[in-house]
Structure prediction request, 384 residues.
Amino acid sequence: MSHTPAYTRLDVDERRRQLLELGARLFTERAYDELSMAQIAREAGISKALLYHYFPSKSAFFAATLREKAAELTARTEVEDDRPAAEQLLAGLDAFLAWVEDNQEGYAKLVRSAGIPEAAIVIDEVRDITAVRIVEGLGGGPRVRAAVRGWLWFLDGAILDWIEHGDVTRDEVRDTALGALAGAVAAAGRPI
Amino acid sequence: MSHTPAYTRLDVDERRRQLLELGARLFTERAYDELSMAQIAREAGISKALLYHYFPSKSAFFAATLREKAAELTARTEVEDDRPAAEQLLAGLDAFLAWVEDNQEGYAKLVRSAGIPEAAIVIDEVRDITAVRIVEGLGGGPRVRAAVRGWLWFLDGAILDWIEHGDVTRDEVRDTALGALAGAVAAAGRPI
Prediction:
């Protein structure tokens, strides 16, 4: 039996995972336009050709790092149990704000880069998944949907304010957000 | 007295105003990256050199068209009278939503292009001016500020949903938004 390492499927997945982790850090630290695939390859200690083997373009790489973070976030905030919708929502919101606190810079940058098409698509996807999940829990028609979608924007605005000023606590952000949601869906005819 | 038209200050202002109006239309209809100064000059029926005389770059021109719209919006939503803060807010919100209804496509595009630095700056300026105005009216500290800033994002999210789906009325958007604001500032300790 040879000791030469075999390049198994796992190696490829592990390399991809490491590249995505590096990408999340680099895209947080630097402006998108300032990063080149050559620089990313250098930081990763691999050839540019190998980097292109994993990701066909910088924008595809950027989109993949966003998707990885979004998947992590969606998994963290998914609450699947028998508790009432309002309690699940609260648990999901707490998990979300805890995740944001751990990823402050990256999150602020992502929300602020909504004009980059790849970022806009991922932000919209996350908001859509979350909106559907909440609207299903609450029940209700177009007015509740509009209230929930507005509220997901509220969250991002309140989070940017929180990160920027740092003079309110995470629990205060949560309580204010819950107040906004309760007020919005009550006005939409669906008190929680 | 000669009949040769004199190029007065008014002509310059009027030309500038016309260029901004054209810019608002062109930037709404086409993607920012697809428009060149040469095309804009052609559409305006002037030379590229003259266009550059008014605006030193495409991004400066874009920023100026946004600022013009923002000034129009801020003027439309300013309510200076002796009514209580809550009534002024309601009047301002009604005026704002009416303006959005008249400028739907441009507004949706502006909100979605928040990653273009010029757009981000103008959006932030408008939100800051509006937030200060509302927070001054309501009174309150950091929690009310965070609630109001989050709420201005709520508005943009709810408006995009409204424009996209078209299945809720302007008054429903207003009532849902007011519910969100009331819920948020009440949670922040400042019931309205």
Chain B has a mean pLDDT of 87. The two ends of chain B are 64 Å apart (CA to CA). The interface with chain A takes residues 112-116, 119-120, 127, 142-143, 145-147, 149-158, 160-162, 165, 167-168, 172-173, 175-188 of chain B (CB under 8 Å). The CA atoms of residues 108 and 160 of chain B lie 6 Å apart.
